[in-house]
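Exercise 7. Given the encoded structure of a 157-residue chain, write a plausible sequence.
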């Protein structure tokens, strides 16, 4: 892929410093509490309405802490890209879990922004809608999210 074929802001010039950041982000994801949080947010918790998500918030507890931990982790990671500290394509290559979470919780973003924070995951969304490369990954991963959601609904019925 040449620089001419990339979307604006996308480069093909990742550095060793970029790789170091990606590896550190991976190390953070491997910490035991973060693993528990990621498991809950990505695999276990499948809210069907904003009210169900709101009950998680109202309940406080570790599940709410998990939601905050995972969403703030990805918001922090994308801030490295937004501020120019991390190569966007290298990050895109390594953020499938963030895309999965985005696809899973995207339906709630307007309400989260209205009720929690007007900027909630705005940088994540801007990044994932800002280039054809990212949009393609979002489309593919969204199909997986919807397949899993459908399987879970069938299993619950």
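Solution.
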């Amino acid at each position: 892929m040449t620089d001419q074929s990339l979307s604006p802001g996308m480069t093909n010039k990742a550095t060793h410093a970029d790789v170091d950041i990606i590896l550190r982000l991976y190390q953070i994801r491997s910490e035991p509490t973060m693993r528990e949080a990621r498991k809950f947010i990505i695999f276990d918790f499948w809210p069907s309405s904003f009210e169900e998500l709101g009950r998680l918030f109202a309940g406080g507890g570790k599940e709410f802490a998990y939601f905050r931990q995972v969403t703030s982790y990805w918001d922090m990671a994308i801030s490295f890209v937004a501020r120019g500290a991390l190569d966007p394509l290298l990050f895109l290559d390594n953020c499938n879990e963030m895309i999965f979470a985005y696809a899973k919780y995207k339906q709630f973003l307007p309400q989260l922004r209205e009720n929690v924070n007007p900027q909630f995951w705005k940088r994540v969304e801007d990044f994932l809608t800002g280039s054809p490369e990212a949009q393609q990954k979002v489309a593919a991963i969204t199909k997986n999210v919807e397949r899993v959601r459908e399987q879970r609904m069938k299993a619950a019925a």
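Remark. Residues 132-156 form the longest helix (25 residues). Students should compare their own answers with the one above.
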